[in-house]
Each structure stands twice: as C-alpha cells, then as structure tokens.
Amino acid sequence: MKIVVLGGGESGVGAAYLAKKKGLNVFLSDKGAIKDDYKKQLIEAGIEFEEGQHDEARILEADWVIKSPGIPKKADIIFKINQKGIRLSSEIEFAAEFTQAKIIAITGSNGKTTTTSLIYHILKNDHLKVGLAGNIGKSFARQVADENFDYYVLEVSSFQLDDIQSFRPYISLLLNLSQDHLDQYNYNYEDYALAKFRIAENQENDNFFIYNKDDEMSMNLLEQLAIRAKKIPFSTKGNLNEGGFINNDKIVVKIEDEFSMKIAELSLVGNHNIANSLAASIASKILKISNESIRNSLMTFQAVEHRLEPVAQINGVTFINDSKATNVNATYFALESMNQPTIWIVGGVDKGNDYSEIENLVKRKVKAIVCLGLDNQKIIDFFKDKKESIYSTSSMEEAVRVSKSLAEKGDTVLLSPCCASFDLFDNYEDRGHQFKNQVLKKAID
C-alpha cells in the first residue's frame, strides 16, 4: 500500500513514522519548508520526503493520503486527491487503525485543551496507562508507534474531524459550539457545527457521547442527528436525572452512583471551567474511576498554559495570558471572569468574528482596548463608538508597553486576542510566550 503524508509538522511526521514502522511504502510531501528537527527525524527513520513543492504525479498514485490539519481543505492538491477518489484521512484516523486502546476524544469551540488535559490528569492520577495527544504534545501516530497505552485522551479539532471515515472513540465529548473558523466553512455556522458532531458519527450503542445541554446549537443539531452512542448531558443551569450538573455550591455527577464535590474545592475557576470539570467527571465515572480519585485530581490539576494564565503582578497591576483565546466565545469567558478594570489586548487574523457577543462585557469591564495586529481596523470600527480609549499596535513589545502605561494599581492587563496569531506570530504559543517575556522584561525595566 502506498501512503502519502501531506505536511511535515508534528502530525505529518508522526503519521509517516507510524506508516514506516508498520512496513508501509510511505512518502511525505510539504509545500513549505520542513523544520530541521523534523527533517532529521525523517532521515533517521529512512522516510522519503520533499519540501517546497508537491510532486502531484507521485501524490496522486497513493492508495491512502494522510493530511495534516493545517492544510486547508480547499487547497488545489486536496481537490485533485478527492477527484481521483483516493482515501483521504487525518492523522487521528490513520493512527486509530493501529491501536486497540480505548480512545476518549474531546472537541468543541472552547475548553478542549483544558478538558483534555484534565481527563488525562485524572486517568494518570489513577495509575492508568494513558497517552495524551491530538493537538497536544507528541502526535497520536508517534505514540501508537512507540508506546503501549491502554487509553488515549485526544484533543480533536474540526479540521481533523473533516478527514475521518471510521474514527470511533469509546467516549466522545462535545463541550460547546460557537462561531469559529467560519472562513473554512463557507461562513456557515451550521457547517462548522456539523463538522464537530462528526466526532460521534461512527460511534455505536456501546460507546458514550457527552454533550452540553446548555448549548443551543448542540441541542438543535442533536434533534436532527441519529447518534447511536449513549448520550449523557452536563449543565450548569439545572438539575439532571443523569449526567453532570450544579446543585447549590456543588458539582454533581449521576451515573449509576453519585459523585459530588464543592465548587470551591475545584482547582479551576470560572463558570466555563465548572462545565469543563463536569464533562471530565462524567468521562471519569464512565471509566469506573473512584470518587475519591476524581476529587483528588480535580483539586490538584494545574491550569493549562496560555489559558487565563496569571503571569505577574507588577505595581499592583495583574497581567494575564489568555493567548489561546482565538475566537470571540473564548474571550467572552475570559472577560466574564475579570473582576477588576481591564486593559484588553485583542487582535490578529480575524476568522469572521462577530464582536457583538462581547459588546456588553467590554462596555462593563474594559477600561481600554489595545489592538495588536497588522490590520486592526475591524476591531477599531466596531468598538470606536463604545470605548473612548482604543490604541493600535503592531508588535508585542508595543502592546505591552502601551498597556502598562494605561494601567493603574488594581487594574488587570488581559491578552485575550479573539483572533488567530499568524499575522505576527508562529502560533498562539509563540504569542503567549512573547507576552510573558515582555511583561517580565517590563517588570525589570
């Protein structure tokens, strides 16, 4: 079988490595430059590859093409692969074919990384043999090739789900839906939402689908879709006969028996994180993890980097890194949790954002807006009649300097960009690291 892998990043190199280890004929192609570390890995594994071009003739001879999630589905080469009827899969689909481990897969517009990391922490804390993959750390394929885990906890994006045919998690979680990546889904919210629901499309009645009963789009689509898995809801707004909910000052999960703990004991703060903790607790109960172990893990979990991450307090001003907030809904949660006057750093590559969702929060909580991007006009135009203090910057150094000059004792400077990072940064991690470096540098200056 001829395998062609498109993309030479963590996902693509991992898929090529797994294919090689399984004795398949594999070739990797990346239209851009491949980083030196990944090139070294390919050479050491004896994997043929090309960079800076796509050898279309060779690619179109493949029996199976593995596509990295960063390659747009509208790319010319993807159109030609589909036209020829060649099987096209994401790395998660490919890797899942080579493991018997139970897969817990998490998707949603916001909270994926936190919830995935939390479930992994719970399983690891309970001494299970578990891997963490998807959009986090080492690729799923590389771990399947080298490890012998009984469980995998995977953070899964809509782009990865676009390219599945048979991917079937034991437990799937759809945390929430909000308008994101609409530029890749014909600016149609329902198309994007349906891509997320693909996480459950191959599940059978011996599998589990955990969903958010408070999410309007999820509930609308659930009425239309024939999901065969056992459906278990969570809600922060009302009691449930089965699933996860809040009762007074406690989170409660009812599945066979009951688990509960005080909200004040959770390591994660904010209403959105209560929802994430409920979803993670449901998955843990399905996996028969003891109440005592779940409680211990929920109390000891450390928040994810770049997600409402406290950086420093300088002269009474708190600096918070929420670089992972790449859509409006994620920033909604960040602003909602602010209890001090806030200087808000926002901007980057707009993905079809509708800022009206956060308009009232900005009016109530934001003292000044500091735009950070190559093109800040859309943000400026939307908020110019709503906030007097709006500043335009085009580097992290400038954004932090301006924010620091505006902040007074008791204020918060919040980086929560609403946008993708690719105009000025390599990715959201690079943006978050630069923010932290500039904040700490300014502390010394």
From TrEMBL:
<keyword id="KW-0067">ATP-binding</keyword>
<dbReference type="GO" id="GO:0051301">
    <property type="term" value="P:cell division"/>
</dbReference>
<comment type="pathway">
    <text>Cell wall biogenesis; peptidoglycan biosynthesis.</text>
</comment>
<protein>
    <recommendedName>
        <fullName>UDP-N-acetylmuramoylalanine--D-glutamate ligase</fullName>
        <ecNumber>6.3.2.9</ecNumber>
    </recommendedName>
</protein>
<dbReference type="Pfam" id="PF02875">
    <property type="entry name" value="Mur_ligase_C"/>
</dbReference>
<dbReference type="InterPro" id="IPR036615">
    <property type="entry name" value="Mur_ligase_C_dom_sf"/>
</dbReference>
<keyword id="KW-0133">Cell shape</keyword>
<keyword id="KW-0963">Cytoplasm</keyword>
<dbReference type="InterPro" id="IPR036565">
    <property type="entry name" value="Mur-like_cat_sf"/>
</dbReference>
<dbReference type="GO" id="GO:0008360">
    <property type="term" value="P:regulation of cell shape"/>
</dbReference>
<feature type="domain" description="Mur ligase central">
    <location>
        <begin position="106"/>
        <end position="283"/>
    </location>
</feature>
<keyword id="KW-0436">Ligase</keyword>
<dbReference type="Pfam" id="PF21377">
    <property type="entry name" value="MurD_N"/>
</dbReference>
<keyword id="KW-0132">Cell division</keyword>
<dbReference type="GO" id="GO:0071555">
    <property type="term" value="P:cell wall organization"/>
</dbReference>
<keyword id="KW-0131">Cell cycle</keyword>
<dbReference type="GO" id="GO:0008764">
    <property type="term" value="F:UDP-N-acetylmuramoylalanine-D-glutamate ligase activity"/>
</dbReference>
<comment type="similarity">
    <text>Belongs to the MurCDEF family.</text>
</comment>
<keyword id="KW-0547">Nucleotide-binding</keyword>
<dbReference type="Pfam" id="PF08245">
    <property type="entry name" value="Mur_ligase_M"/>
</dbReference>
<dbReference type="GO" id="GO:0005737">
    <property type="term" value="C:cytoplasm"/>
</dbReference>
<dbReference type="InterPro" id="IPR013221">
    <property type="entry name" value="Mur_ligase_cen"/>
</dbReference>
<dbReference type="InterPro" id="IPR004101">
    <property type="entry name" value="Mur_ligase_C"/>
</dbReference>
<feature type="domain" description="Mur ligase C-terminal">
    <location>
        <begin position="306"/>
        <end position="418"/>
    </location>
</feature>
<feature type="binding site">
    <location>
        <begin position="108"/>
        <end position="114"/>
    </location>
    <ligand>
        <name>ATP</name>
    </ligand>
</feature>
<keyword id="KW-0961">Cell wall biogenesis/degradation</keyword>
<dbReference type="GO" id="GO:0009252">
    <property type="term" value="P:peptidoglycan biosynthetic process"/>
</dbReference>
<comment type="function">
    <text>Cell wall formation. Catalyzes the addition of glutamate to the nucleotide precursor UDP-N-acetylmuramoyl-L-alanine (UMA).</text>
</comment>
<dbReference type="GO" id="GO:0005524">
    <property type="term" value="F:ATP binding"/>
</dbReference>
<keyword id="KW-0573">Peptidoglycan synthesis</keyword>
<dbReference type="InterPro" id="IPR005762">
    <property type="entry name" value="MurD"/>
</dbReference>
